[in-house]
């Protein structure tokens, strides 16, 4: 097993309500995290719940987990240790090709925006 570096919310920034996520989805032409489909390009909004660095051999990637109350999406940023501003509690938009990886919906190197 490999060592995991996990960053979780140190203080509760408050999870947005379903109504707030609904408004953000409409404003950004996004769908809910629970409605994404494998092998479909999707645009989702959610709140960052955790970050971790995943080492793999000589490389690594940053895994950012977002949720919106309907589901969870993992964003993988290859070759990154951190992204300025990406922290638990941040509200973000991810866009990219969704893949089902070991039972989890994942977007590799998603386009992202802070909301």
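^ Assign residues to that structure.
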């Amino acid at each position: 097993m490999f060592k995991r570096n996990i960053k979780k919310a140190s203080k509760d920034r408050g999870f947005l309500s379903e109504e707030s996520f609904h408004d953000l989805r409409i404003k950004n032409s996004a769908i809910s995290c629970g409605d994404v489909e494998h092998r479909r390009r999707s645009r989702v909004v959610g709140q960052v719940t955790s970050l971790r660095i995943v080492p793999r051999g000589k490389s690594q990637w940053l895994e950012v987990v977002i949720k919106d109350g309907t589901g969870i999406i993992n964003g993988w940023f290859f070759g990154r240790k951190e992204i300025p501003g990406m922290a638990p509690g941040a509200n973000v938009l991810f866009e990219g090709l969704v893949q089902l990886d070991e039972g989890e919906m994942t977007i590799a190197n998603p386009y992202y925006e802070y909301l």
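The longest helix spans residues 18-27.
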